[in-house]
Amino acid sequence: MRLIILGAPGSGKGSQCKWITRDYDVPHISTGDILRKNISEGTVLGQKAKSYIDQGALVPDELVIDILKARLNEEDCKEKGFLLDGFPRTISQAEALEEFLEDAGVKIDKVINLHVPDEEIMARAINRRTCENSECKEIYNLRDNPPKVEGICDKCGSNLFQRADDNEETVKNRLMVYHNQTEPLIEFYTKKNLLATIIGQEDINDTIALVKAELAK
Ligand code: ADP
Ligand code: ZN
Fold this sequence. Notes:
By secondary structure, the chain is of the alpha/beta class. It is 51% helix and 15% strand. The chain has one domain: Rossmann fold (3-Layer(aba) Sandwich). The protein has helices at 13-23, 31-40, 44-55, 61-72, 75-80, 91-104, 118-126, 168-182, 184-191, 204-216, and strands at residues 2-7, 28-30, 82-85, 110-115, 128-131, 139-141, 160-161, 195-199. The strands form two sheets. A five-stranded parallel sheet has the order 2-3-1-4-8, sandwiched between helices. Strands 6-5-7 form a three-stranded antiparallel sheet. Helix 4 (61-72) packs parallel to helix 6 (91-104). The longest helix has 15 residues, at 168-182. The chain is globular and about 50 Å long. It starts with a strand and ends with a helix. The structure holds adenosine-5'-diphosphate (ADP) and zinc ion.
């Protein structure tokens, strides 16, 4: 299966990806995760990306397109397809992906557009905490879904952290970037007859049910 999930930062894309990747046995590819890993390992790519991410700006297209292509060329994606999370984020990224897939002779099956109002996104983002264990990456919300013990992951016992870009100022900036640069993809994929919009629900299980029904179509 080849899927893209679109949605504003903090719309809950990451949480949906967790069950989709498990149930459909498809590799979850998050360009944000790949970039953060490079930053924490201090790679050249990480050094180039860091200042953009910290400001809530987009990392230049050439950089992310290269890392995405490299990832899609790995065996697991050739075999099982992919679930793209956080890519594409601009029309030119979407066009580069089209070209890559065309050369590979494969097609996108569906684009899920997860819609959540800005006010809700803001409230969620500043309350978001993530497990630092890269094998786990469980996501908590101090308002709706707090961990049993403060600062500790229920699942694996690792520490939780707040992403540096999850503060009010940066979230506002990321939302603006989303509306300006990424939202045009809704029309791009609608025209290709690939888009399905799902309205994000208050209870994550309700959103899961809606996405499940859409993927079963
Ligand atoms: P969120 O969806 O919550 O904003 P991500 O983890 O997807 O978080 O991305 C975090 C940051 O990484 C973005 O704000 C941006 O700076 C950078 N980034 C991730 N994916 C891309 C991409 N496809 N193009 C440009 N920048 C990206
Ligand atoms: Zn954990």
